[in-house]
Amino acid sequence: MTPRRRTASHQVSAALLTAAETVLDRDGTDGVTVRAVAHEAAVSPMSVYHRFVNKEGLVVALATRALEELATAIGAADDADSAERFRAACRGYREFALRHPARYSLIFGVGSPLRDQSSAVAVTGRAVFDTLATLIDQMGSLPPQSDSVEAAQIVWGAIHGAVTIEQVGIGQTPDADATFENLLTLLIGGLRDRWAVPDPRQQD
Amino acid sequence: MTPRRRTASHQVSAALLTAAETVLDRDGTDGVTVRAVAHEAAVSPMSVYHRFVNKEGLVVALATRALEELATAIGAADDADSAERFRAACRGYREFALRHPARYSLIFGVGSPLRDQSSAVAVTGRAVFDTLATLIDQMGSLPPQSDSVEAAQIVWGAIHGAVTIEQVGIGQTPDADATFENLLTLLIGGLRDRWAVPDPRQQD
Q1: A89 and A97 in contact (C-beta within 8 Å)?
Q2: Average pLDDT of chain B?
Q3: In what residue span(s) does the HTH tetR-type domain sit (chains A, B) (predicted)?
């Protein structure tokens, strides 16, 4: 196989993935089928099958791409102040979720491919999570290791809940931007000074 | 109409609603149709139609019942200590969500009937929210009114995110119970002492 042909094949895969993303954004996870993606890309179903095998293969590829986009959205901030960097990362997370609700739901909604923690896509997901944990670590006085994972889980849950309530449209405050900033203020304050997580190994 | 006949009619409605809840728990929101509920209750579709009109009527009735259950789960605690009462309420919330994922998704998931804020079911939802705000108010030094609503929204978002991540099965910590308790500790600490929400009317 020549380099030229490898490139061409890679380009076909990328074009199919882009078509799949178009279907996802338009029709949601349920709409992502080999047939629908083939139709969107104007190729035969066999071409899609050849590269992604089935719906699950499409979902994993789409989830991996979405997680990479989310990682970029979180990691783009280069503010010198660690709390501002954390804020910027959380804002980037929220923006991604609000701009791409179907992609967000695919990665974190019911039936998420991240459930299988041994899968390659779960490793990509864990890398995003670890980025959040590092940002939290850099902010302050948390004890190392297990606690920054606890803290990252709590932060992730809190911002996940905030953005999904916003996506659904059932928030009870007048200004979702302000409420999100208030959440970040509470999290930063809580994580920095007031929060001491008991070591789970020492709990009874 | 005699009292006896009113009671009988009410009992039929209650039996149909229980059948609808069985369908919801088994098949999710998508499965709740006039036909499916009629089949479950072993009555004619016309009987269901007569009381609930359509799928939307069933969803609203189920959401109202679920919100009442959630209110009970939150409000059952009578601990003298306000922080313990808050913890118990949040634990009750989590238990409801984990025990009844389909009901939880119906009220707070995509397509939630609470989106229409002028509807009767949204008033029921708001009452649950206000219970949470009152519990937060009782805990401490928050300024009154607008701020306890902000605080309740933040708390709701945080626990909503925690329980939905748990429902989907994509949490990154080994002990979900411990992580939820750590979340509550962070929220209580943050709400009590460290958090001052700017008045939105004074923001530029």
Answers
A1: no
A2: 89
A3: 10-70
